[in-house]
Specification:
Elements: H1 13-19, H2 32-44, H3 48-55, E1 57-62, E2 65-66, E3 70-72, E4 82-83, H4 85-97, E5 100-105, H5 108-117, E6 122-127, H6 131-134, E7 137-139, E8 149-154, E9 171-175, H7 179-187, E10 192-196, H8 199-208, E11 213-217, H9 218-227, E12 231-233, E13 246-250, H10 254-269, H11 272-291
Parallel strand pairs: 1-5, 1-6, 9-10, 9-11
Antiparallel strand pairs: 2-3, 3-4, 6-13, 7-13, 8-11, 8-12
Length: 292
């Protein structure tokens, strides 16, 4: 999305909390005739669930720059131009509802506005249930709880960085709008936060020596370590009490919310999301390695 890194000294915690969950780049615009047709169905339908069934599709707002939840992939014939665990979840929800999934990509604020105004039915953004977001949507049940968050460092410096305090005055990289960026602000306040467009950008800064550490989810970090043996996980631990990742539906649409939650319950019980997340981690790593 072309976002530039900013130093933590000038960074506002409230802003990063508002941005947590990341956003998507670009917009998909429908032809005027299609929008008018959908609007007509929406007006005549009793509720959003009924409209979804009548239209034969569910409109899902996504973030396509927040691996492994959702990210762009090289477009191939017959395949979606997006990959990620949230894309798999959205596709699964649509299948269970007996409709098609229409993924709509836009920036984070537009995603929030879209579900508030009802121009999308559901948003899946790798999102935490922050209170300000509850004003714009109704949250689904939790479908994933992030694991341990860790600091990657160079193996040659593992004796140097063993405590969070060791990063005071040092640059620490994390993806823009992510949980990892929030943790840097909250738990490494004396360090300098450098924001990157992707998790791989943070790893690249570490490899190039422009950052002393990079914060990643442990599962993703261990995938990186398989490819980068010169890196290790620091002994400096970050604490995190996970609220869990949720989706959001149009506020007040209890019928749609109940259906989506029933499907999420099945996904959680069958551990499907962890399977999708693991595959998405692998795919994201492969794509990032191919482009850097």
């Amino acid at each position: 999305m072309g976002r530039k890194g900013k130093r933590a000294a000038a960074f506002c915690l409230a802003g990063i909390l508002a941005l947590l969950g990341s956003g998507c780049s670009g917009n998909i615009s429908l032809p005027e005739s299609s929008r008018e047709s959908e609007a007509a169905v929406q007006r005549t339908a009793g509720n959003y669930l009924e409209a979804v069934q009548q239209l034969g599709k569910i409109r899902i707002g996504i973030s396509a720059d927040y691996a492994p939840f959702a990210f762009e992939i090289p477009e191939e014939a017959g395949e979606l131009p997006y990959g990620g665990s949230d894309i798999e979840l959205g596709t699964y929800i649509a299948q269970k509802l007996g409709v098609e999934a229409e993924f709509v990509e836009m920036d984070f604020e537009a995603c929030m506005d879209a579900v508030e105004e009802g121009s999308v039915d559901l948003v899946l953004l790798g999102m935490l249930p922050e209170s300000d977001r509850a004003e714009k949507m109704d949250f689904t049940d939790v479908y994933y709880k992030p694991g341990k968050q860790v600091l990657l460092i160079k193996e040659s410096q593992k004796a140097k960085y063993t405590e969070p305090e060791d990063f005071a005055g040092k640059t620490v990289a994390a993806q823009y709008g992510s949980l990892q960026a929030q943790l840097v602000v909250e738990q490494l306040p004396a360090s300098y936060l450098e924001l990157t467009e992707s998790f791989y950008g943070a790893v690249l800064m570490l490899r190039l020596g422009t950052a002393a550490g990079a914060v990643l989810d442990e599962a993703m970090a261990r995938k990186v370590l398989k490819e980068r043996p010169e890196l290790v996980i620091s002994g400096a631990e970050l604490s995190y009490d996970s609220k869990g990742i949720v989706g959001g539906v149009v506020k007040g649409e209890t019928g749609l919310l109940a259906q989506v939650n029933a499907i999420i319950e099945e996904v959680v019980e069958d551990s499907l999301y962890f399977e999708w997340l693991d595959a998405a981690n692998e795919q994201a790593m492969t794509l990032q390695e191919a482009t850097h």
